[in-house]
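We append the chain.
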Amino acid sequence: MHSRNHHADLAAPAPKDARLRRRVTQMRWGPLVARTLVGMAAAAATSLVLVGQFGRGHHTLDQFNSILSILLPVLALALAGALRLRDRPSVAVAVLGLIVGGYQLGGAALIGAGRTIPISGPTLKVLTLSTFHANPSPEAIGQVVTAEAPDLALLQETNGAAARVVDALLPDYHRIRSCDRPHCTLTILSRWPIRRVKLKWPPHQARPDLVLGEVDAPMGPFSVMNVHMPRPYERKMQQLMAEGADLARAQGAKPLIVGGDFNTATGSFGLARFAQASGLRRFDGFIPTYPANRFVPAFAGIDHLFASKHWGRLGCRRLRAVQSDHYGVVCRIGLRAAE
């Protein structure tokens, strides 16, 4: 009896040996799982960055460039993890994504911020804000715009919930609308007299949602354009962006300011094409404005301010939330010194 028990004790593993074996197994599987997760994150983020590069030729794929501001932090974390795990393939994949995405978004942000340009004339404060058709508290729009007291306010979606406050907004300001009805999609408020420029479009041709005005300001007349472009995945987006750019370039040698909801993100090829075709310079750098009414923070800059070579940038910032699905942008600009 004693001999049988003795052999059973020898056959059963000691508790310490079992714990040691489990620990060794965990040590073997832990790095493997970590490498797999880091590699998957790096590969997925880099794939989306590279897919966005095909947006040069197809506007639908250009949408992937709107999430560059999310992909770059993911790639940075993946790179840090890969370096810690000494996982060379994941390091290479993450570095590739960071270089391509960082060059694209960083370059676009630097172009927008630009270098300091000497300002010789008066300065203007220009505000652009998409007021949101279904805004649950349009009074907040009035509070923010009144508090900012801009020289120019470019408002989009003013035929929705904001319609009941726009007419009473800044009562001492002059205003034009994008149509002849009381409530239109676009409204421009100006501290100085402004007249709407009637535009002629070819019959049966889709036209962009925009309004062009001429401002009679003390520093001299200049033009201002307020736009609301379609979303990047819509088939007509490229055509309407091109028509807006052509109209801006047609203003010729006159000082021009163009702002609004472009629905096209900083770093996208569509926005770069608009700047090149219009001959204008973007002033807003990288300011995430969408979404403003979700549980996630804003990650895409789709509200922009462009201007002709007559203007210099003094700085831009984001407005506080006004119950819209966009944050607004306000920029201080001024007339440049003669070259």
Observations:
- The longest strand covers residues 119-130.
